Amino acid sequence: MNYKIFIVEDDPWYGEMLKYHLEMNPEYEITLFDNGREVLSNLYRKPDLVCIDFGLPDMNGEVLLKRLKQENVNLPVIIISGQEDIEVAVSLLKIGARDYIIKNDHTKENLWQAVINARENTILKQEVEELKDQLEEKFDFSNSIIGQSQPILKVFKTLEKAIKSNINVSVTGETGTGKELVAKAIHFNSDRKRKPLIAVNMAAIPPELVESELFGHEKGAFTGATSQKTGKFLAANGGTLFLDEIAELDLSIQTKLLRALQEREVVPIGSNKSTIFDARLITATHKDLAKEVQEGRFREDLYYRIIGLPIELPPLRERGNDILLLANNFVQDYCKTNKAGKITFSEDAKQKLYNYEYPGNVRELKAIVDLACVLCDEDKIQPKEISFNKLAKDNFISFQEKSLKEYQTDIISYFLNKYNQNVVMVAEKLSIGKSTIYNLIKAGDIKLEE
């Protein structure tokens, strides 16, 4: 597609010279005008760039520039002028001119480069918009949060309500359940999606630096403050501020955070000037905030200020078949990232994944699946290639609803694995007959690992 350039020049000879020079690039489609009104009446043709002479007979360059920006604020405009007054150039650039070129012996070369720069800038902006669109699609919660279980469908319903409003959102859930993913899904599906999402892990910031990180500081405000710093509240202006692990905040900082949220303004360290901000707040924690309030570790007034719309994420062990949906998704991601062939799970491997409790939740499942893909010798993952977190290997009692026989089978399987499939030793440990174990193995209720 050709790059459309309008040249507005009242000197016919000079205009033709510029037109001829730019047409040396076959991708440029040049149209020449001799007055401002004519070019304004042709904006329906959607030019990609407009070059205007500052001294036109019907209106000066400043007036025409303003009219062009009123019609299309994103339209690049290059001013070509015989004036060398720096103040005029600066004024036009402030109004929105893309470039200011003086008429002299180098005008043709300078215009050529200015057009290239303007075109590259437009392409970069288009790429940024495309990337933003891709982010929105990626973090559409039906794509980014995998699951069909009732607990996760309940979360989806709450997310839909969060997206349609600007209310504060508080996300709770065990470690690894996907709290930051929820924050991203809310932001990138809300009216604030074109503005920044600033994520801050409160547990990762030393207590003495938290105030500076959140509210910013002036140069010289304290030892080591060699330059001015913009805080996260102002960095998120117009967008969303996500404060993860909010329960880790020191009580003194909680007081300042409360004031900022109440007044909707922040005061950087070392400054006496407050700055208004407009950012939506999403908080997250793996702790029970209400309990933290009762035990005096979290301010009650701040609790009610941030609680907003609560979203509780279910642990993976309560999500049933979502475990296998997520596992398959992680396998596909692994294959795509590592350019590997198709990998699937054997039925026994699926059962092993399904029966595990996942104290680390979705994050742990991903680590388990990635390792299984690495260990897999063929195109199918077997039970022996699935290894669970050693930190939690003694947590063998399931929290799922099961029959007494299923619990019995789980306990016997656990001890068989612990004692290297030694049936006699396990029978002695559990005070049961060897025949009970052999019958379960024969019936297929227990599968001995290789």
Automatic annotation (TrEMBL):
Residue ranges constituting the Response regulatory domain according to the UniProt record: 4-118
Domain Sigma-54 factor interaction as annotated: residue spans: 145-374
One Pfam family per UniProt: Response_reg
Organism of provenance: Marivirga sericea
Superkingdom to which the source organism belongs: Bacteria
Name used for this protein in its record: DNA-binding transcriptional response regulator, NtrC family, contains REC, AAA-type ATPase, and a Fis-type DNA-binding domains
Keyword terms, alphabetized: ATP-binding, DNA-binding, Nucleotide-binding, Phosphoprotein, Transcription, Transcription regulation
Molecular-function GO terms, alphabetical: ATP binding; DNA binding
Biological process according to GO: phosphorelay signal transduction system; regulation of DNA-templated transcription
Residues found modified as 4-aspartylphosphate: 53
